[in-house]
Amino acid sequence: MRRNCVRKNLKSLRLLFALLAVFGLIAAACGDDDGDDTGSGDDGTEQTDGGDGGDGDGEASDISVGMVYDIGGRGDQSFNDAAYRGLTQAADEFGIEVDDLEPSAGGENREELLRLLAEQGYDLVIGVGFAFADAVTAVSEEFPDTEFAIIDSVVEADNVASMVFAEEQGSFLVGAAAALQSESGQIGFIGGVENDLIAKFEAGYVAGAQAVNPDIQVEVSYISQPPDFSGFNDPARAREIAASMYQGGADVIYHAAGGSGNGLFEAAADAGEPGEVWAIGVDSDQYEIVGEPLNQYILTSMLKRVDNAVYQIIERYVGGEDISGVQEFDLESEGVGYSTSGDFLGDITGDLDAFAEQITAGDIEVPTAP
User: 64-165+307-335: which CATH architecture?
Assistant: First the structure.
């Protein structure tokens, strides 16, 4: 905490010196009748004092943000990659210093990594995923002058922003898409880890499918059970489960399993030709990520805009706002939705948008538990 306080004092001194320098330049400019003599260097200095940080040279560049990913880290083509996009967008636009770390395979060192970033003086430290709840609780208490943020869980502390999503709403829409597209009347759901969060994906998906076809069959399977979180990074097991579902008659399968989702896409390619069987991605627009030929099997993806949430929380922090407390991202705030890449949904997008309007209007209340 001592190092963090020193860091903040240094920031204040640097800001004071920058402002004094700007006042000197303004005085010099006022005493010079020839505006052309100012030069590009003076213009650049004045823009720097604007504080927007968009070019990386403003006073916002003195702000630093650290991030610790969930299991699987960058390259999962889903949840972690979405958080990374939000972080890099903020870094590019605000000129802030950023660092990102990946936990061990089992995630045992989450708290250690959060503490490391706090000790190094990062102003805002973000934990990506509900599994960081205990770690954020502990470390935020140790470093009350550091701001923290957590995705997918709520931590009650004055220096923590809790970013939560209405995953059930986005899942409702892709569940409706699955039922509208299914020829067999049988679809599947693969969850990474069976817990309350992933149950929201399942509940919304089933409700959306049943809103289209009350008699539809939905086969549900989870890869692992808590405290084993390997289900978010086990594509081989997801491929095995998906293959069994396709062989059993399912023709559309949705996953909420992070990096394991690649196994679903591979199983779809094994099960038939594009258009005969389908997979549904999650979190990111996975059609745009996995590449051909696997993306030809991705009907749509449930978009959980973790990138938007990370970017917005950093933007607000850079702007000097209080970011603590619960921040919810739903259909109305464009925190969740569905993708149309590949144009496989065709004219059923009208049906999906109609469902979305009913949800935002409160005419449809989507369940959060199966």
Answer: 3-Layer(aba) Sandwich (3.40)
